[in-house]
Amino acid sequence: MNIINAKFSPTAIEKAFILRSELLEKMTRDKNKNVIFVTAPAGYGKTTLLSQFNHMTDEKVMWYHLDMFDNEILTFMTYLSEGIARCLGKHQEDIVPFLNERLDQGDIKGLVADLLNYLSQKSQDPLCIIFDDFHYLTEDLIHECIAVFIRYLPSNIRVIIASRTQPALDLDFLLTSHRFAEISIEQLKFSQAEENTFIDKIKPNHQEIYNQELIRKNNGWPFGLNLLQHAISENLVSGYEIQELYKKCFDNIFEMFDDQEFLLSTCLLEILDVEACNYITNRTNAYETLKMMSGKGLFISKIHSGVFKYHDLFRDYLQEKVSNKKEVYEKISAYYIYRNNTLEAIDYLLLSRDYDGADALLKKGQYTYVSIAYYSKIYHWEKKISTKTAYEYGSFSLIKALIALKNLEVESGRQFIKNARILFLDQKDEEGLLKADIIWVKVLRMEYKADEAYALANVIYKKIHNRPLDEKVDVLSEKLYISAFLSRVDEEFIVLKNEILSINENHIKTSEVQAFALLEYAAYLIGEYRTAMSVQAKYRDKISPLNSIIYTIRIYMVWGHLEEGKTYVLKEIDNAKRFGLNANLPELYGILAELEFHHGEYGHAEKYFKETMKCFVDKNNNLYHLSTFTYATMLAFLGRKDEALEMVSKYYPRIPKDNHLGFMMVDMMLSQMYLILKDYDLAIEHAKRAMVPSEAFGTKLYVATLSAVIATAYLAKGDERNVLKYAQTTMDLSESGYYIQDFMTFYEYYKPLYHFCLQNHIHTTFVEEIKNRVGQGLMEQETNDSEKLYVRFFGDNIVKAGGKLVRWRTVKAKHIFYYLLYHNKTGVTKDKLMDTFFEHYDLDKANGNIRTSLTYIRKAMQDVGFEEIIWQANSRYFINDKIITTDLMHFNQHIEDLNHTDEDLILSAKALNNIYKGAFCEDIDIYEFNLEKEKYYNTFQNVILKAVSLLEEKKDYKEALNFMNILIQHQNYNESYYQKKAELYHIMGNQVMMKKTEEELWRIKEK
């Protein structure tokens, strides 16, 4: 057989193409992943990625370009053996004898065995075999051959398969092994960062905005961006020229579809719902058609069961080919009217310019859909309703007013409402006038006319008091938001509680969900956290806005449920990044920073506080002020007084004088900071300053916190009369609302207050609980044992003495201290320290750095009262460990004492969880410690999994789930954990949570 040499030549890389760094890192970092599938439709950069991989890898690469002529076993095996022989510097003749003999006998397994044995004997170096365009191979015999080949691959050989479709190989065993990795269409799409890199590369021109819109619609499609890059390099800068380039590409794709009529009939739908497609096309096989097209990867993707979506650019192309748009829009609107989906029907009536029809639908529902509850939908109507059309219809004027107000264009909103009122008065439309008045309340609120707005809102509410809730929800929303300005939230809380009494919980409407969300918000504002959480727990599936989730996280934090709060916030940060919701990130990072602070993970907390401050665009935002001064309080807590005071002097003057809410938050944090710094007069001053708006606002948590600060400060000053008053207030509110976490975090500073409360019999049960909660973990060892250093190896690497953190002059000094302590039994030579920490320095400089680092360690220890921490013997350095206690000692002791009886094992698992706060030496990146990270995690994981098995046997599935959640917090990408969690929910019969867990697993796989 004549061999075509070009089939073994890797594809050349285009110089201008973007390097896929993250994917390449994934392919190279773990050599144990010796089977990789790269699966996506044409144009997603599979071959380009493999070319980049070939260019950077140090492995030998055998590249095999496949085509339709390779779909025959003899041809395939001949090329495969020749390619391997060339890579090994051998000749094909070494392989051909056993190749022909085995093929004649039909002995595929024997053939593959011979080939694998040959590879084992002839190749000891790493070898990577790349099959490009694997979708051309459809013969069962070839698939069987490759499956066996992969199953028994030598450890030094990797196989990468690039295909437009999922390879039809029987490789179930791979899914449960650690050898397999997959790169799918979602990963091959350009990330936001890669698209930004692309934007930076293309030269500026007058079509820049148009090009950026193309990039947005491109949805990460690499070939699409490559086309645009080519267009710009060829100076095809006009919109028409670029569209023509895309059109030529899509013309070829369009011709590949047998059912072009289906494409043109359905492309005006935003999403391809199967039932809608059947209705519009007058057929019954839409699902089969969509599934077939999706399977071929031809710019149709499946979103979830029964719902598909065209690629945005392909959809644009198809819509240009539709000649009867008005007719199709009318048919789509008829479908949504038939389905009683009024909002979608109005949407398509507007597109068909049937304004009378859209207006009639709005009036039919008493203008229900002209509402802030439907902001997300009506906001998209802005371009579909011209200003001229809006001035002809009162309903459209109201919609334009709402859109203007959402864009903070108050004057424009005012004009649209005035126009609507004129039209409604002419038509004697009382309902329209009422709706205009409700939106007018919003205008007054946005103009800061709170008293006038609240008075009008109450007048409207009295008029419609007996109407259904969906007609009242807008005015209830306005009443609540305005009450926050006027410190009357507690009144609205009662109104909302009464409103929800009439709700049928078995059939909850959209407006009623909005009412529950308002009740939750009101409860959160005034510190009625139990009510807020009961609403959230009962209606979690229905109330899903970000604010609701943030309330839950903050309440978890106040209640001391830090792990639950962290799980939620990490998930929301992930969602915000996935969906480009950058506006949500500042508050989420701020909450995460606070959680880590309360958790004692101070390094992580500082990192997230800095990330928070960087994310905020609006530096006058109250949440920005809160995060900034919480950060300052943490710095004071860590003994970094100068930095804390510098932040106060820098940022406090920047808060606008009329921002009462901002000052309330900031003064509360400053009162805690000055309490920590033992400046009791300033602590009292700031606390009392914050107390006035806090009491007026009705924020029980703030009043409780401020009362605790004032009571503790007065106690230090010896004013027991005032202490008694404020101690009673803080404990009354804190016990009823279970505001416990601050008392635990600032335990050392509130200690005198606890003793006072116990002596005076003030809420002794609650105070004892605080003390017990603090004593449960390692806090007592960390804070109370002033005679010893406490060193934490797991999670945030901190060293404490008597509650005071050791401050390191350099990071290297800290790392050397940990290294010496870990090797304290044998000691460490100077040469070993130089090789580990200063490998690339010349000898004199490395010696000098070692001396300096050891001096810094000694000084850091002297600062917290410990002399002679380092000593030498036999040319080795040792740490004086008689004055040290560590979490690692406790961890190893628990493992050593581990008893496999049921109760003891479960107790040991809980104890290890209290110790294992994160990876071993999480902050220290040296090779030796990285190996230990895996060892300690595996030990921890094995104990937890054994506890789960025992709990399953005892049928205590709830506790087993708690342990699985612990593992997920440490490795949230481990698929087996989610599978086990779903299995436990299945056993419990909780189908809702099982489905949610499976969705989480799906997202993990997607990543």
TrEMBL record:
Please state every residue range assigned to the domain named MalT-like winged helix.
259-324
Entry's InterPro entries? Answer: AAA_22, AfsR-DnrI-RedD_regulator, P-loop_NTPase, Sig_transdc_resp-reg_C-effctor, TPR-like_helical_dom_sf, WH-like_DNA-bd_sf, WHD_MalT
One biological process GO term for this chain?
A: regulation of DNA-templated transcription
Q: Which domain of life is it from?
A: Bacteria
Q: Where is the ORC1/DEAH AAA+ ATPase domain?
A: 31-147
Kindly name one Pfam family recorded for this protein.
Answer: WHD_MalT
Q: Which GO terms describe its molecular function?
A: ATP hydrolysis activity; DNA binding
Protein name, entry field: Uncharacterized protein
